[in-house]
Amino acid sequence: MKLIRDPVHGYIEVSDKFLQVISTPVFQRLRYVKQTGLAYMVYPGMNHTRFEHSLGVMYLAREFVKFIADNSKLDFVDEDYVELVALAGLLHDVGHMPFSHTFENALILAKHVYGMDVEEYGKKTHVRVGEKVVKDFLSHVIDKEFSKNMSDPVGFVIRVLEERPRTEEEKLANLVVSNFVDADRGDYLLRDSYYAGVTYGYFDVERLKRFLVYVDGKVAVISKAVPIVEQFLLARMYMFENVYFHSVVGLYNAIVSHAIVNLMEKGLRIPEDEKEFSVFMDDMVLSRLGDVDERLRNAVLFRKGFKRVKKDVTGKCLDLFSSRREEIYEKMREYKGLLIYHEFNDVPYYEEKDEALYVYDGGEVKKLTAISLIAKSLKEIRKAVIGYHETVEDKARELVQLLEECKTLGP
Predict the structure, then answer these.
(1) What is the largest CA-CA distance in the chain?
(2) Which residues form a coiled coil (predicted)?
């Protein structure tokens, strides 16, 4: 047993079998993949990586499922099951590519703006890549270390990551790792706040985990802990508004996305080979920036050359821009990343037929909006940022003029 000192959760215990997985080159690679892309351009402390986040999710997944089992008296939860859920938490981001979601954005640009023949699945591309990593590169280690008391641990992890559970055990694991309130979000809100030097993402995780139950195939929070869930949802919303969707953060993530597309045009692809994938990290992209336009390189490395239109695109104006997206894409193609239009979109909370946060109230399971006015009031976050390199300032005038036209539309 090893103890890892973590600035967010304190000591994290890591058994020998987990160490065997953590010590593989494909997992160690995550030490060199930034958690929040180029957010460090604005928040200098945000140099943390997917490696420590993955350890944190492993820890919280273990904690969440233990408390859920105790509160719900679940017969199928034993120590081996808890370890498998923790393993799914540990590996949930193993497929992330250089600069995390920024690389996924590059794939979207490559396909939909530049017309390249690339495979992309939006913000879930890292999940698809992660499935391959687990199946092709880590299965021998997982089978060796985890199959003694559990059948098909590799299949369990893959189905949990894919959100395609077949059994009650896999369904609970999926909800613990990926849900509105889960181990993933629980860790990144606290961790990203810590490294950004802000308090927006803090919530009472110690109280939250003690009031989780599993009822009727749903993870729910006991009613007296509803204020903690509201705190969690608000924390996430504030982090998106102030950190993840910071206009300058978005601008630089968009710039490096275009630089990555530039490299794709020169042959960069997601490696199929294990050794090549093990070095598929931020530094690999940075080391190849000599092959892209010098203006993009200087922006990514030295924060030089690009300007942002101070007024963001919001409300009805965003609808106008969206209606002319193809025209904007044409301009972006023409100027190869020197003209930037980058949209942000997130829904803090929503409810659908089988997708919601639930509250266990007096023996009855209710959707959160039936109890919480705060949850009911949360709205979609939408905006866009416009940026340009100083050498093409005149080419950005059309977008700026369109922004001026928006003044007649209202908010």
Answers:
(1) 68
(2) none
